[in-house]
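Backbone-to-sequence.
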């Protein structure tokens, strides 16, 4: 038999990694929360395959839907209609917050869905001004329509040019100095390390108020098209905002007539104990972005446009496309996945298991000096590790993103000694299991982390 690990390490470029030492584990198969390797190991995937397999690997109903679809039609262009594409678009229009008169555009990744949202926001604002017959551009030579997107420093929206330019994450630095202009970054709703040194609730949401100041200083609705946020920050720390934060942002965007875009690539599909993270806050965004677990086993992204935004494309070109857009097989996987979430009440399960997980993780904080903060919602949790709990000294600075920390050691220990796979490139530990995780599996994970944290203490 070929050594596929060797072959892959020889020919594949691993994402975001120095290639020397790349030694992927050769996989035989994967089932539920577990990956089975060719050399007989059974490994728990605590990052749900980049937060994509919320239903665990090989959910039989999704596989059956995909197989059935493959027998009919895998892909035709959107000049033709297919059952799964039509039904999934309708389903997403129905289950996302707001009225059902939405429109959906399908891509293959979160980044592309983000690109579509940014383009649409600018186009929407442009037409809004044209329709008003506005001559709001007072200074001569000003760019003729609102184009700025306000994002936040702790954010990741994807690796394509626009999406990466919209991301505060240091991964955008790989593209510099050629980031696309027009993006400005605001402060984060990160209470553990408040950018203003304040405490919630006495802060009165200084972070949101500052965003409003930014809108004004950036030129208001004559210059700013949208505010782009992850309702619960993912890659940059799993940070749920205070309860009033997103309603406040909605209010601010409405006051300035600016669009609010929610990137739920990581948090959609029940991850946080509701179908969408924004559902926790009762806010309707103007656009909602999905990816990752939407297609579950097949690459699929979606940009869901509210009626107000979608309407502009009734009589104007929607200037976005991809060869494989509205892919029937991916849509069949997505549709079946949502059905499974509903039938098996997995969003509820995510909430209940999340409560259980959160309680157990908080007891770890009591026992381990290295745990600075425990944060999360549903099955989306992190233990932020620190060098010193009193000073909150972080394990590494943002400028040291690729510097190995004790988290790498913990990840190595968990993988080698406990057969648990967690991301090692974080400043904390991630606990992001598939939503089908059982209480016993959570006990097993938390006990293993308990042991591993001694390395950090
Ligand atoms: C919030 C968010 N948006 C967008 C993306 C990009 O998705 P993709 O990697 O599918 O392009 C990610 C990926 O991690 C993400 O977490």
């Amino acid at each position: 038999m070929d050594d596929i690990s060797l072959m892959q390490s020889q020919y594949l470029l691993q994402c975001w990694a120095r290639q020397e030492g790349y030694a992927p584990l050769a996989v035989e198969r994967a089932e539920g929360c577990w990956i089975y390797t060719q050399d007989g190991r059974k490994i728990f995937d605590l990052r749900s395959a980049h937060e994509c397999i919320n239903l665990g690997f090989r959910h039989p109903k999704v596989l059956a839907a995909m197989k059935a679809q493959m027998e009919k039609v895998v892909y035709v262009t959107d000049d033709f209609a297919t059952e799964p594409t039509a039904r999934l678009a309708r389903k997403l229009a129905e289950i996302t917050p707001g009225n059902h008169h939405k429109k959906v555009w399908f891509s293959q990744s979160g980044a592309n869905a983000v690109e579509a949202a940014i383009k649409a926001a600018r186009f929407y604002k442009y037409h809004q001004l044209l329709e008003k017959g506005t001559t709001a551009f007072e200074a001569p030579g000003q760019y003729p329509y609102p184009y700025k997107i306000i994002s936040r420093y702790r954010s990741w929206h994807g690796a394509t040019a626009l999406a990466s330019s919209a991301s505060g994450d240091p991964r955008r630095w790989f593209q510099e100095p050629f980031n696309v202009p027009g993006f400005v970054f605001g402060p984060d709703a990160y209470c553990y390390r408040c950018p203003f040194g304040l405490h919630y609730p006495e802060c009165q949401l200084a972070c949101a108020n500052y965003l409003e100041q930014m809108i004004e200083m950036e030129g208001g609705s004559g210059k700013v098209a949208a505010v782009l946020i992850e309702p619960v920050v993912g890659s940059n720390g799993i940070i749920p905002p205070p309860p009033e934060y997103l309603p406040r942002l909605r209010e601010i965007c409405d006051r300035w007539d600016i669009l609010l875009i929610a990137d739920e690539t990581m948090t959609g599909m029940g991850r946080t104990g509701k179908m969408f993270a924004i559902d926790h806050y009762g806010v309707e965004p103007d656009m909602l972005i999905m990816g990752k677990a939407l297609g579950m086993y097949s690459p699929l992204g979606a940009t869901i446009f509210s009626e107000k935004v979608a309407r502009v494309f009734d009589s104007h070109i929607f200037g976005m496309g991809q060869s494989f857009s509205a892919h029937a097989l991916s849509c069949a996987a997505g549709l079946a996945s949502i059905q499974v979430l509903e039938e098996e009440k997995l969003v509820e399960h995510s909430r209940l298991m999340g409560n259980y997980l959160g309680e157990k993780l908080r007891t770890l904080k009591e026992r381990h000096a290295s745990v600075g903060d425990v944060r999360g919602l549903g099955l989306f949790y992190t233990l932020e590790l620190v060098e010193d709990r009193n000073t909150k000294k972080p394990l590494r600075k943002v400028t040291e993103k690729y510097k190995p920390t004790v988290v790498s050691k913990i990840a190595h220990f968990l993988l080698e000694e406990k057969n648990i796979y967690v991301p090692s490139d974080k400043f904390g530990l991630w606990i992001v299991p598939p939503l089908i995780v059982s209480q016993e599996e959570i006990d097993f994970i938390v006990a293993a982390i308990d042991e591993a944290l001694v390395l950090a203490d």
